[in-house]
Predict the structure.
Amino acid sequence: MISATVVTIFSLVILLFSIIIHELAHGYTAFSLGDNTAKYAGRLTLNPIKHLDLFGSILLPFLLFATGSPVMFGWAKPVPVNPYNYKDQKWGDVKVSIAGPLSNFSLALFFGLILRFLPEAFLISSPGIIIALTYIVIINIWLGVFNLIPIPPLDGSWILFSIFPNWAKQAEMFLKQYGFFILILLIFSGGLNWFYRLAVVIFYAITGMLP
């Protein structure tokens, strides 16, 4: 039987590296569009030390765990990019912004399909691997869904501002000023539960199981 402590530590490690891959996706997409900012900053690496954010990568996940939150998430230091270097000035921002969530959904799909098509005998005999795959999939789906919420500093806000620039002019200043506080309010008021339910639906669609 796997202890709750081991599961928690494993989930935090998976969360950390999923966040790092998310940020790398932003950086490499910007790099592919002609922007070397992330490369010169030494951020195109899997070395977690280069990406750790004290609050988002360490304190917040442990705070959520300590308070018994049903959702676990965090963030790394944003990868620096310079949109003026993009070869695609029209859609560059959208491509870079959406690359992070897409990396998480891709990881979830890859490991989720493995989970879905494992032989039943293996599912019964190897519960540890099943738990590991389940956490990899649900954490990455949740990160993808969470980051698409259109509130700064999440990716969804930059996608929204890029696709609807006229509307963004009216909302961008307000959301940039108060977005972080709105986000914290959603986190600790249970307002993210609807998004988590969406993540569970996506998990079921990929794996045929409930997390």
In short: The chain is about 70% helix and 0% strand. Residues 4-207 form one domain. The chain has one domain: 4-207. The chain has a mean pLDDT of 85.
